[in-house]
């Protein structure tokens, strides 16, 4: 599916999506035209979803990262649609997963302060009936990356 050049391109653009085609081509040992074709193919195939700018949460005053563990006794499609839509609309939610195991949903938040969790909690429980909601806050980010292993 991917050859060595494709993998090098993917690694390079994960580190810095602002690199020029020529810079990537020089890095992987191809000329600009085949490098551009590969990037277009990887984009057309959906491997490259989009390029974004990563912001520093602390520079924006978002000093608290919380992980919310949600359990529910509701598992029907209508409940899921209501809950998923409601959570997706909350800007402080940066990641949201349906889980296997003891926890049904995992939500990652970025908030200015731990005290802001109470307001989020009240909005969350108003979306749909929940059995249990618990939270843990991160004391330190030891590894936090958007890079996938390619």
Which CATH top level class of the largest domain fits?
Answer: Alpha Beta
Total individual domains: 2
Distance between the termini: 12 Å
- Runs with pLDDT <50, length 5+? none
What's the count of strands? 4
Helix content: 25-40%
Judged by helices, strands and strand pairing, the structural class is: alpha+beta
Tell me the overall shape: elongated
Keywords:
single chain, 150 residues, alpha+beta, Alpha-Beta Plaits
Characterise the protein shown here:
The chain is α+β, with helices and mostly antiparallel strands. It has helices spanning 4-15, 21-28, 32-44, 77-88, 117-127; strands spanning 64-71, 93-98, 105-111, 132-137. Helix 1 (4-15) crosses helix 2 (21-28) and helix 2 (21-28) crosses helix 3. The mean pLDDT is 96. 37% of the residues lie in helices and 18% in strands. Strands 2-3-1-4 form a 4-stranded antiparallel β-sheet, with no helix packed on it.
Short précis:
By secondary structure, the protein is of the alpha+beta class. It has 5 helices and 4 strands.
Fold topology:
Blueprint: H1 4-15, H2 21-28, H3 32-44, E1 64-71, H4 77-88, E2 93-98, E3 105-111, H5 117-127, E4 132-137
Antiparallel strand pairs: 1-3, 1-4, 2-3
